[in-house]
User: Fold Formyltetrahydrofolate deformylase from Pedobacter soli.
Amino acid sequence: MNELTVLISCPDQVGLVTHITRVLAAHQLNIIAMREFVDEANKAFFTRIACTGILENAKALKEKLLENLPENAEVNLITQQEKQVAVLVTKEYHCLAEILIKNHFKTLGANVKCVIGNYESLRDFTEKLGIPFFYVDHNNKEKDVFEAEIKEIVNQFDVDYLVLAKFMRILSADFVKDYAGKIINIHHSFLPAFIGANPYRQAFERGVKIIGATAHFVTDNLDEGPIITQHTNHVDHNFGVKEMVRAGKEIEKKVLLEALELIFEDRVFVSGNKTIVFK
Assistant:
């Protein structure tokens, strides 16, 4: 028996679940889990269906589903193959370390094909875990040249997603467009608070009582892409800058790894600037 994930988004109408399940049954596919959501404000329907069975003709199944769905429906049929990813880094190691350790022990749900850094700082750690590391210097270089060098590396590996694991360079609109919906970033706050450098020092100086982190898709608007997941941690007057940084990094790791797990399991739909997440 094979596993199949069916992802459908379309305008909402009466009877969608009945039409979808009838088609799947006709193709001898057994539904083992089904989640659906209706965005009533936008009259949109979303569903994630996990099936088992032998899929003999994926094209025919997709065509039959589309015949039974409203116009402008989107249907994705996904076999249980691991995603391929590239990770972009600067100097901070904590998010990369979590990703590479899980990758090493085959618990990431994806394969890390390469790590690209604009500093050499994380080369030794990356290569010790058997992952190719590519250094792309950004100094004294136009952004389009810098990004073209990154693209040349990424495109060698046919990756599904780019993960920005504390990659501290702002990507151009052209770069983002080339990988639309495929770039995942971690932000050091509930967006858009404490924008810029030294976020935890800013938080410390403001005397905040809650710190947090946000994982989101990257869009043209800096740090404003669709949010995948967020977490917080309570702090108080006993926290100095070092304690704030330490707590913040723990949240960043947690949020990024949770977001990646959801994405690698095909549990995230993007709808405008929001996401529907079937946990």
The chain has eight helices and 13 strands. The two ends are 24 Å apart (CA to CA). Residues 207 and 237 are 7 Å apart (CA to CA). The domain at 83-277 is CATH 3.40.50.170 (Rossmann fold).
